[in-house]
Design a protein that fits this description.
five-stranded parallel β-sheet, GMP Synthetase, Chain A, domain 3, single chain, 30% helix, Rossmann fold, alpha/beta, 26 strands
Length: 521
């Protein structure tokens, strides 16, 4: 009985919000609008329907789908049953999806019309997956006849089974991007995720009167657990869309009088460059959040100028910490430009050297954390779990400096640090210098193999529409701002930078695409 009366799990949060504000709008997606009471009831019926299909506590259920009301409902229905959510990046190939399905031991895979073919192909490679669940999406889509219908599951009249569940039980396994090796499955409990929600509410200002637009993929823990989950926790209104493009985002912001929005810098930049930006009513927007990569300081200043009423937060973290770790608040955006701030409420963060000693201000070290947000470990991977928690701290793999006030500035991922001619070059420092060039829309700096320098600094540049820029122009202006060893050896112009659905730059892809640049000389 004690476990029931004191229980705090993800499934309980929605029930409590529905009890507080039953008639308030909880979710809008396309033509679907649910009050908190309706959302809670649908989640209960869906949980009952899944239980009738054999889904029980500890069962891993994967989702390969774009954002939708159905995705949101399935997330909470699984939590009610004590089942484990396994969200999958829909940009992966069938073989990569199948690896996650097999590694996680998923028996069911939910998908939508857009990824039905990919889901079927992955299922063929992962025989343990017995059935596919079809999720309706934001736009009208054709139901897949060979799949379990979401609507049929959510029409169940059975009771939700009683489940012995508490905060230490596993809520989700979220797989990392696998940039350095095979993807790792970060095991996150209900406690870890909810403690992280508390940090988001307190430090990121998530509030009940927010009308939040959720446009980045819900399979990624940033949108799912820094914004959508905490918004449900406090009882906010949530507009869900699957398409983070300016032509979709800006009209939605005006239509629903959005007050709160999160996107990585690439999406904010795309909105600033859109012809719609100047004609869209953004007068209700008050809270702007960014993360996933560093916001160029020049873009930060442009946002402050063009959206003066919007308060900005920089949120930094990673999957393994559920994912929020540090925050730079509105008052510090221009006072500490480029910083990711300080640890949030329930996190302790340090910047250390290889001997785990705190580095002095200005010296580069690795970011490490202690927090109840943290994962239990990597699923079926004791070796990499032990390495990640070596010395009693979680090792982020991010390199940073810390200043006298305790503000942290990420320098690079360890794998993105460029070692050229015996010198270390932080790609981010070079990118910041190149963003000062008015004609530059976006830039990514990578290290490429070089016969003399081992690695050479290379800038990959997207030029603003209607502007012209030459390699000579870029190098001349870079030389005025950077030491010679930091100045790019080459500039490559492209129409767009490769990004994942969360807007994160795929530098590994750039390195692969341009690996032969200096052998072609």
């Amino acid at each position: 009985m004690d476990s029931i009366v004191r229980r705090q799990t993800l499934g309980d949060l929605l029930r409590r919000s529905a009890a507080r504000t039953p008639q308030k709008t909880a979710v809008i997606c396309g033509d679907v609008s649910w009050s908190y009471s309706e959302f809670n009831a649908i989640v209960d019926r869906l949980a009952a329907g899944l239980a009738e299909r054999g889904v029980a506590k500890g069962e891993r259920v994967a989702i390969l789908a774009r954002n939708s009301h159905a995705f949101a409902a399935l997330r909470f229905a699984l939590a009610r049953l004590g089942a484990v959510l396994v969200p999958i990046n829909f940009m992966l190939k069938a073989e990569e999806v199948a690896y996650i399905l097999k590694h996680a031991g998923a028996r069911l895979l939910a998908t939508d019309s857009g990824f039905a073919s990919l889901a079927r192909a992955a299922k063929q490679l992962a025989p343990a997956v017995e059935q596919l669940i079809w999720l309706p999406s934001e736009a009208q889509s054709e139901r897949q006849a060979d799949m379990i219908d979401f609507a049929a599951l959510a029409a169940s009249t059975a009771a939700v089974p009683a489940v012995e569940l508490n905060g230490t039980d596993l809520a989700q396994i979220v797989y990392t991007s696998g940039t350095e090796s095979l993807p790792k499955g970060a095991m996150l409990t209900h406690d870890a995720v909810i403690w992280q929600y508390v940090s988001c509410v307190v430090d990121a200002g998530i509030a009940a009167d927010d009308v939040t637009l959720h446009a980045l993929p819900l399979y990624h823990c940033a949108q799912l657990d820094v914004f959508f989950g905490p918004a449900i926790y406090v009882g906010g209104t949530n507009i869900i869309t699957a398409f983070p493009t300016p032509d979709n985002l800006l009209p939605l912001m005006a239509k629903y009088r959005i007050t709160s929005f999160f996107a990585p810098p690439t999406v904010w930049i795309s909105m600033l460059r859109s012809p719609l930006f100047e004609t869209t009513d953004l007068s209700t927007l008050r809270k702007g959040y960014y993360g996933a990569s560093i916001m160029p300081v020049e873009v930060l200043r442009e946002l402050a100028q063009r959206l003066p009423e919007v308060r900005l937060w920089n949120l930094y973290g990673q999957t393994e910490i559920a994912p929020l770790a540090t925050m730079l608040g509105p008052e510090d955006q221009l006072r500490k430009p480029g910083s990711c701030g300080r640890a949030v409420l329930n996190v302790e963060t340090r910047v250390v050297d290889d001997a785990m000693a705190d580095v002095p201000p200005g010296v580069v070290g690795e970011v490490v954390h202690r927090s109840p947000h943290l994962m239990l470990g990597y699923f079926h991977d004791d070796e990499r779990t032990a390495a990640a928690f070596q010395g009693g701290w979680f090792h982020s793999g991010d390199l940073a400096t810390i200043d006298e006030d305790g503000y942290i500035t990420i320098v690079d991922r360890k794998k993105d640090m460029i070692k050229t001619g015996g010198e270390n070059v932080a790609s981010r420092e070079v990118e910041e210098a190149l963003y000062l060039i008015p004609e530059v829309s976006e830039v990514a700096v990578v290290g490429l193999p070089h016969p003399r320098w081992v690695e050479a600094v290379v800038a990959v540049v997207v030029v603003k529409s209607g502007c012209e820029l030459t390699e000579e122009d870029v190098l001349k202006r870079a030389t005025a701002k950077l030491a010679s060893f930091k100045t790019p050896k080459r500039v490559v112009f492209v129409d767009a930078l490769p990004k994942n659905p969360s807007g994160k730059l795929l530098k590994r892809q750039l390195r692969e695409m341009h690996a032969g640049l200096f052998t072609e000389m």
